[in-house]
Amino acid sequence: MSETMSTNEENKLPLNGRRAIPPNYSNDEENEVPEMEAFGLIPRGFNPRDYLRVVDIYMFKEPHEINKQEHHTDKYYNPRLIVRRGQAFQIQIDFNRPYKPETDQLWLEFLMGRYPQQNKGTYIPILVGNVLKPGQWGAKIIHRENNSIRLSIMSSATCIIGRFRFYVAVLTPFGILRTRRNSVTDTYILFNPWCQLDAVYLDDEKEREEYVLNDVGIVFHGNVEDVKSRSWSYGQFEENVLDACLFLMDKAELELSGRGNPIKICRVASAVINSRDDNGVIAGSWNNTYDYGVAPSAWTGSVDILLEYYSSKQPVRYGQCWVFAGVFNTFLRCLGIPARLITNYSSAHDNNANLRLDFFLDDEGKVDTRLTKDSVWNYHCWNEAWMTRPDLPVGFGGWQVVDGTPQETSDGMYRCGPASVQAIKHGHVCFQFDAPFVYAEVNGDIFYTRVEKNGTQVVENIDTTRIGQLIVTKEVGGDGMMDITEEYKFREGSDEERLALETAVMYGVKKQSIQDTTYQPQTDVDMDFQAQKAVLGNDFKVTITFRNKSRNSYTATTYLSGNIVFYTGVTKSEFKKHSFSAKLEPSSSSSFDIVIKSREYMSDLLEQASFHFFVTARINETGKILALQKVVMLEIPSLRIKTKGELVAGKETSVIVEFTNPLKQTLENVMLRLEGPGVLRTIKKQFGRIPMNSTLTWEVKFTPMRPGLRRLIASLNSDALRHVYGELNVQIQKP
């Protein structure tokens, strides 16, 4: 017998001893379905045309027709039928003669993937019956006329989501006759937050409109004292985005049979959103050089990123946390899982679930950058997805943290979540997935530790309130900010907070108690630091204020270190060193001003224009050290967007983007982007340079597609200046 395998398609598959069929994780692949499935030998003279034959199938799949209207899928730019699970939809079948229920036997078939199997939910036969049961597969005739029947079809509330192939099968005495493969009848089935039996059911209509149907959102960035916001286009309904999102599950090799479970989908998606260890969607870069790619700050939305990945299958360069979170939000909303983008200000990182961040000071009281390895991010963005958690005890469903930014590995891959927000608040971090990591991101303490020459460590100061002091998301139905800190933690210092912490420690979060450390702070002197509103390119003033509450006179040797930092809290360079001796009179306050010149910081400035000031003061009479750190954000100028003439759907109009260069230097390699979901696909334009004080004007002609309130979002990116945004809400009239 020859060793060579025949070239038959079936034999090419590497079957092994453990599986009867190969793994089934491609929604794209298909199997051959016979149009005539004979039961045995077919007698001569058998003519399939003598039996009931399907002439045409009508799916009611236009945006204005009943299915897409009732299933809230009318916004998808997709010609196929898109329905949500657990809810009935209608189709019409035309036959070659009237249908006779007494003698004609027919059923419907939905198939997915290359190896459809009934017990895996990838082959679904549906008999036509008389009654539909809620949340279970079934079909019944609701109207008969001439040669046509209209069916109402109910899908299961737990069925897998994705793109199904659809067939109608008719039984004859000699075999099964099926309709021919026709991609026009392909049906997408998605999660259904409107269905009480679905794991993602959300009971508030306003929240469903926001967390499932809103295709633009707000990203909050900046820092706690200076919250900034910008728009992000999720674009989950744009052309090809749904197929791109289904492809991500293929890429993550999630078995088709697992795709009805939002917990599994979130877990694999949090790994595939980033490119670490699986060639996923976005390559992260935090080093301020973005050669051969797009700077993270230049993106205005998710659509370009998802479509580029879908076509190239290669990671898209580059992203940082809000880009990972923006794309993840698009993925979740597109599939029908309610989702929102969260910003945690002063987020603790690199923390191996340890609740302590160490900042080391040398014996003079200056921060020792060599020893200090921990960092506090000015902010960090992640997502919350809404679902039940049948895998956890009762009470831990609802919002779940999922994070696509690669930070730590979880079960061997860069991913995070889903972790129950409720479990994090109460310290029940034993419940999967990755709750200790998220708990530490919002609950760490900062230890300022002085290292003496002989190596002993003395804790000089402990800041228990800075980490996770503000957690926000966009409000429902508006662009304002909603403070959700209380959903993650109890009030600082309350009994409940202490109990939650003890619970978290019991379940393995590492916490060094303050009692273990010799720690006697200077309590009778307060130090405060304030910065004047700082505009990019200008000088500004910072003020250090001491309040001596004692009856003693003190002198304080004070150091100010100004650093240019990445938004992750990692220092790039120190641009300002200043020390002075402060005389502190009894029972009084004294303030000291320091001027920061623009020439000191402009050459090294990073894209988020944020400074990190460390101030340490040694009280000479007692040897005690006061320490604080503060982030200062520069005001970055914005783009101006205006429209010319009236905006009518289907009629060409134009929009103008303007920008004035505020810097005392020429901007080189200027790139502008403009997009608006439902209005226009992203347009990019390269401008060589903008001299100082001069204004750039860019006019874009476009034809808005559909009426309604829409948003235009623009960004400007250049070598010296990034994070420049502009946005405009536009009302598009009906023609």
SSE layout:
Layout: H1 9-12, E1 36-38, E2 54-58, H2 66-70, E3 81-84, E4 88-95, E5 106-111, E6 123-129, E7 138-145, E8 148-154, E9 162-172, E10 175-178, E11 187-190, H3 205-213, E12 216-223, E13 226-233, H4 241-251, H5 262-272, E14 282-284, H6 303-312, E15 316-319, H7 321-335, E16 339-348, E17 356-361, E18 376-387, E19 398-403, E20 409-410, E21 413-414, E22 416-420, H8 421-426, H9 435-443, E23 445-451, E24 457-463, E25 470-474, E26 481-483, H10 485-488, H11 495-506, E27 525-531, E28 534-535, E29 540-548, E30 554-565, E31 571-584, E32 588-596, H12 598-601, E33 610-619, E34 625-635, E35 640-644, E36 653-660, E37 667-676, E38 680-690, E39 695-702, E40 708-717, E41 724-732
Parallel strand pairs: 3-11, 6-7, 14-15, 17-23, 28-34
Antiparallel strand pairs: 1-10, 2-4, 4-8, 5-6, 5-9, 7-8, 9-10, 9-11, 12-13, 16-18, 16-25, 18-19, 19-22, 20-21, 23-24, 25-26, 27-29, 29-32, 30-31, 30-33, 33-34, 35-36, 36-39, 37-38, 37-40, 40-41
Helix pairs in contact: 4-6
